[in-house]
Design a protein that fits this description.
CATH class: Alpha Beta
Structural class: alpha/beta
Strand content: 15-25%
CATH superfamily: Alpha/Beta hydrolase fold, catalytic domain
Strand order of the largest sheet: 2-1-3-4-6-5-7-8-9-10
Length: 332
Amino acid sequence: MNYIVYKASSKRKTKLVLILSIILMSGSMLSCKNDKTKSTENDSKKDSTLTSTPKKATTAFDYVVKDILIQKPDVTNHVRVFQKEGNNGEYISIIPSLGRGVEDYTEKYKSTITSSLVDAGYTVVLIQPRGIGKSTGDLTPGSFSLKDMAHDIKSCLDSLGITKINLVGHAFGNRVARTYATMYTDHVDKLMLLACGGNSTLDPEAEKCLKGSFDLNLPDQERVKMLGCAFFAKGSDPSVWLHGWYPPLAIAEMQAAKTIDPNYFKKAGGKKFLVVQALEDFVAPPDEAGKALRDALPNQVTYKEVAHVGHALTSEQPKVIAELMLDYLNSK
């Protein structure tokens, strides 16, 4: 797997491109059995350098045309670009849930959302939050903010030469997405929020289940029960999310949410946006989450409900969620 390091400066938009190393990662989640893609040596050409992918793809990772580390002062983000051969469609990025990574939107966690978007002609840019894998940066609670998260995303997109993005915020990621839209309104095309809670106080039982989901010291069987309670609808398999948790990041994100006035990002810079509400979402129930936001911002919100899913809707019914997203992306 080829890794290219981009060094981005906050004071200037030019970038220095270095080929860091060739790292063999046999069997890792980044490896693809039939992967024949190679990062080009001349990445200063930005979008025109995206490499073709195999004609037949079985997972989102077969669509990876760029796998890079983008470095800013004190922050490094692992970024992967997914694209179908022959396509160079609009860009779309997904911001993940609390303490989780962008792999949630791939087959690794039973989601086909990235694959569906790529198949529809979009170029998907997944930016791993700091604190996960090769993404690094300060996560000291209190010194890490929603604005920092938004800035991380903007710096990565700038380094890739992407000036406008369709943005998706899942669960906690909806706050980051709306913060981004508030800070960089002219750089956002369509905005979509999935399971967008955070507007009310958590039910005590939901809070207990949420905390239990992050307790990696609990036996797997107990954690699966907590996951089912907090994130999944009845009949869904909560073990899908047994792995992929990053408690230090979650702690920093929760503290960041407490240190910002929700009114700052509530209106997303005045952008219109889609709200996809899970009807069995215990953490963000309809009346307190999606419906409340719709009623507060009737001229901005397009509201859609999905039955038989919870907070982890992207892994429960990914095809339905992808269809709603594509319908909104194709709307005028």
